[in-house]
Each structure stands twice: as structure tokens, then as C-alpha cells.
Amino acid sequence: MRKEHSRLPYETGETRVDVVDRDDAGAKPQPNPKPMNPYGAFLLYLLAILGFVAVTLLMNRMLGPKPAHSAMKQEPFECGATPIDTRNVKAMPIKYYAIAIAFLLFDLETIFLYVWALGAQPLTGFMLFTFFVFAFLLVAILLYVYRARLLEVVTE
Length: 156
Known about the structure:
Structural class: mainly alpha
């Protein structure tokens, strides 16, 4: 059985590349089945990932160690040392929360822009529009951080 490739779509003006199977006797070519929908492939991949995570967590709960809870285990320091001063054990001040959220927003925007740059091979008007949306969001976050004086509040 040998495979014959038709010409590339941009050479023939066609929209689909057909790979046909033809046996050596010259029988009638059979076109390959229609390719999978990209959304279906994504959902299948997502289900496989979530299924693997669920099975792994379930196996860990069923087969993993089950330590006994004790007063020592419930202490804030599990490194084996006793706490020096119990008054130092307190929650993180709320002023760091806004900085953490702003950092996450910048980090996510940067990752999305990197993925966008990899996927924007034929640069169309829609792709430029999405770039400007992301750039606008980055500038809006930066202006919010500056106007809310988030960095100055942390240093006070």
C-alpha cells in the first residue's frame, strides 16, 4: 500500500489536503476520513488530563499513608523545632494581597502574549486586535497599581 499526497492547498486553490491510500494494483483511491474538530480534540485532551488527575488523587487517598493527627502535628512549625515565641505566629498583612493579585495579572498577561506571539503566524486584523486588547489590559493594570499606590503602601 502506498500513499500519494495531493498538491498543497495554496498551489491548487483547494481548501483541503487529501492523502489517499492506493494499493499497488491501482485500485480506486479511498480518501482518508474527515479530520477531528479542533474543539473536540481539545476537549478530549482536557478530559484525559482531568481524568489522570482524578485517578492519581483517588489512588493517593486509597493507597497513600494516613498519618495520625496529634497536637505536635497541628503546630504551625513542622520542622521539628518548637516555636520560640507564639506571638509571632500571625496572619500575613492584607496589604500584600493586592501586590500578589497584580503580580498574577501581569504574569498571566505575559504568558498569554507569549502564546499569542507563537500563534499569530499569519498576522491578520483580528490578531492585531487581540494584541491591542492584551496591551490595553497591561496598561490598565499598571495604571491601577500606580494610582492606588500599591507599591508605596507595602513599603510604609
